[in-house]
Prior knowledge:
The structure holds two protein chains of two kinds. By secondary structure, chain A is mainly α. Helix content of chain A is about 75%, strand content about 0%.
Amino acid sequence: MSxxxxxxxxLTIILLGIVLFLANLFVGSVKIPFKDILDxxxxxxxxxxxNTIILNYRLPQAITALLAGSALAVSGxxxxxxxxxxxxxxxxxxxxxxxxxxxxxxxxxxGVITSTSVSSLGWWSTIGxxxxxxxGAVAVLFLILAFSTKTKNMATLIIIGLMIAYIAxxxxxxxxxxxxxxxxxAFVIWGMGSFSNVGTERxxxxxxSVIIGLLxxxxxxxxxxxxxxxxxYAENLGLNxxxxxxxxxxxxxxxxAIVTAYCGPVAFIGLAxxxxxxxxxxxxxxxxxLPMTMLIGxxxxxxxxxxxxxxGFDGNLPVNAVTxxxxxxxxxxxxxxxxxxxx
Amino acid sequence: MQILKTHSLxxxxxxxxxxxxxxxxxxxxxxxxxxxxxxxGKSTLFKTLSGHLKPIAGTIEINGENAENVTAKExxxxxxxxLTERPDDMFLTVREIVASGRFPYSGMFGKLSExxxxxxxxxxxxxxxxxxxxxxxxxxxxxxxxxVMIAKSIAQDTPIIFLDEPTAFLDYPSKIxxxxxxxxxxxxxxKTIIFSSHDLELLLRYTDSLWVMGKQLPFIKGxxxxxxxxxxxxxxxxxxxxDNEYLTNRI
Lengths: 343, 251
């Protein structure tokens, strides 16, 4: 791809992001004229109900989608390069299952022990769920990191991750079996993912956490590139494989843990976006792919969120239903076309 | 000074010694072929010499320094490898792969300096694949891929190059070409080249120096003609009298 074309494509992706971001503010069950939205954003509006809808509801949701999209996309790219497996995604190492177990323990066990449903606890339940998801995800992350120092073989690590995921989900199932109906419902809803649970207060924490992870990932681009040659070549070129694997897993797992804590397990963005980025730019250079997966991840998450909120689907469709529905055909198209390009 | 030297080196894995008492000494510009039947420990010797495996006993000296004291980064500037396994990424270009040889020299974000660019260009020219530099690696023939990996080694700018069975997947003309490339590198660039191969017949014609490994047999080294005359090659490869006569006549 020529340099000029590359710049045009990058600008298009950014522009698309801006349009989708505005669409996220515009689309919803309450119709608000576009001019009013701009007024609210420019603080030129005194209508309190409009301010509330946009500033407290739609804006945080759009920013959450933007952050979650880029974080998951980068996390997926790191996993795909680390395992040199196009099917790798952020949930690969059991980190999302760990989060689910954490949330399961809090939602379901609270019900069993205190005989009150967690969902009736209101605001505290949101914080509790996020915290539980984070603790669960990080617990699995550390377990995986411990195993990764023992082996250079990535296949071993994938199997270990898969087994941990099985154990976590079986424990979650046991918890479900003994739980109250309302709690199971709450748990299922959490599992469908949502960008709407992050209010204005918690948005700062999410933003800072995600940005730290994304910035850290930039320091990996040189090592990720050399990993594409295979471990033996990379090691011969002076790369410390075990330490490098540990850092990649740490950053990828951290990003997944953060997003899962705030939005639930959002599927497919992490799997689909790296494929889209590689295909658009016909490149495997991570110095280009990392920033591009961030941008495209943002676009895709914002797009899915708009679809989930189209009037008629009153309230919110579960994000996971939309991401998979849109992501899967994209991946199929990209892989089929990609094969043609190379052959 | 000897660039690569071992003292009573034993190689293998924690509970299994594969070969011991290996004493070798190579100088700049030496080219040596490592032969032996499958399972004799050729790969293990390569991995040990190139620092991927720890020796079980004995020492390795790189440029006069004990290999234990050489950091991974310094080693990356001393020895490069060419393997039978190849990168299989869909979008890697030839230039990107050759450029990865500059990994030990470039900064934190992998930005290439003018000097790096010059080295990459030079490596592509030496191997004669400059015209391929923008091609996708995955679309090349086996022979071309082999050359790309060798160009990567040259870009890595190491005095020592290891090649693991470089003739394995090549057709006959490519094998001959490979041998001439290796010879040129040793003569013109003063590279020390160590490669393993099963192409006994070609080796006898194109190389002088051999290291021979065998199952349950000691490591031996010497000139091709000597090893044939004293019957060592025949012994290590279990050759019959007819093969024997054939090979001796080739020299």
